[in-house]
Design a protein that fits this description.
Isopropylmalate Dehydrogenase; alpha/beta; binds nicotinamide-adenine-dinucleotide; globular; 10-stranded mixed sheet
């Protein structure tokens, strides 16, 4: 029997509600997949500030260091909005966690079930069969972090600002590695997105990705696309993509574009993977819903638990290598939607169910 040791950080707003559902589902799926979960819950975000004076309390960080993965809810809310920017829950909790665990790979699945295709802002015929695209974004390099990065005063009295876009081949290799692993679990197609007609970093990106895939995964189908075209193609025909591999800034923009064309934040999960291998030989990872704490519906049994549940499935897949158990959870979510169960965010005026009822429906469809 395998033991999964991960830290649970429910956070604020709807976090604790949807986390409860995800843990229940993990426990049940473990019974038929030979694993047990060993987890403890810790304050983070606003709860950390209120109870420990810190959005990422030392006790929480220590618990994460001893775990093989982090299952994260979401943080923040009106109560903490007036704090100085550096103390804001999202910035003061998530950024240090990314840094501490060198989370360099961000995986954002864009999933839209055909039954929910009306939620997409795209034309019905474009998304009638649903969307299933995975965006793999490099998260710690590129123009957001490159030095020098400053605003300076010129003698002329003008100011100038500089950001530096910089990538090393080793950074490109390791994110390509993650994309290869993910593509092998999917249809085997990777579309690498860059701006190699203008940017030196993109020329290197294209070269390193091409060589690595040719050398280590020749069975995969690799294509390249310029980022301006990719942004257009995503709205024109998202289904042409299976896995998009891209650098930090392009991924920031394209993954949000993908999220919006999928229609509901309550359905979208995400994973951030790090360098460190965990006790099972898989990457340490932080798994969280794409949406925030939804303060407007918190504590009312209205939140859609699917994003948190699907984040738990990603954790099984990438940090514990439990592909079948992950797929089982994803199928149970899909079957619940197919059977007509809808939380208020995806109901479009039709009768809806609460967080607990949706969780129960998923549990019943695990077998
Ligand atoms: P939000 O994602 O919390 O909410 C936007 C809209 O989507 C709301 O109408 C909300 O009700 C709905 N929504 C989101 N998730 C849902 C779910 N699971 N089920 C049903 N409806 C859902 O974004 P916001 O309102 O801009 O931010 C609210 C708070 O969350 C802010 O404090 C913000 O800083 C924080 N936030 C945190 C994270 C994070 O922890 N990673 C991410 C985004 C926002």
């Amino acid at each position: 029997m395998m033991t999964l040791n991960f830290s649970t950080l429910p956070g604020d707003g709807i976090g604790p509600e949807v986390m409860g559902t995800a843990l229940e589902i993990l426990r049940q799926v473990g019974e038929s997949h030979d694993f047990v979960i060993e987890t403890s819950s810790h304050d983070v975000g606003g709860a950390g500030i209120d109870n420990h004076g810190d959005a990422l309390p030392v006790s929480t960080l220590e618990a994460c260091r001893e775990a093989d993965a982090i299952l994260f809810g979401s943080v923040g809310g009106p109560k903490w909005e007036n704090l100085p920017p550096k103390e804001q829950p999202e910035r003061a909790a998530l950024l240090p966690l990314r840094k501490e665990f060198s989370l360099y790979a961000n995986l954002r699945p864009g999933n839209l079930f055909p039954e929910l295709s009306d939620l997409s802002p795209l034309r019905h015929e474009t998304v009638a069969n649903g969307i299933d695209v995975l965006c793999v974004r490099e998260l710690t390099g590129g123009v957001y972090f490159g030095q020098p990065k400053e605003t300076r005063d010129l003698e002329s009295g003008e100011q100038e600002a500089i950001d530096t876009m910089i990538y090393r081949s080793s950074e490109i290799e390791r994110i390509t590695d993650i994309a290869i692993t993910a593509a092998r679990l999917r249809s085997g197609r990777i579309c690498s997105v860059d701006k190699a007609n203008v940017l030196e970093t993109s020329v290197l990106w294209r070269k390193v990705v091409s060589e690595k895939v040719a050398r280590e995964a020749p069975e995969l189908e690799l294509s390249h696309m310029y980022v301006d075209n990719a942004a257009m193609q995503l709205v024109r025909d998202p289904c042409q993509f299976d896995l998009i591999l891209t650098e930090n800034m392009f991924g920031d923009i394209l993954s949000d574009e993908l999220a919006v064309i999928c229609g509901s934040l309550g359905m979208l999960a995400s994973a951030s993977l790090g360098v460190r291998k965990n006790g099972h030989g898989h990457p340490f990872g932080l798994y969280e819903p794409a949406g925030g704490t939804a303060p407007d519906i918190a504590g009312k049994n209205l939140a859609n638990p699917c994003a948190q549940v699907l984040s738990a499935a990603l954790m099984l897949r990438y940090s514990f290598g439990l592909e079948e158990a992950a797929a089982r959870i994803e199928n149970a979510v899909e079957r619940s939607i197919r059977d007509g169960l809808r939380t208020i965010d995806v109901a479009q005026g039709a009768p809806s169910v609460g967080t607990r009822e949706m969780g129960q429906a998923i549990l019943e469809r695990l077998d």
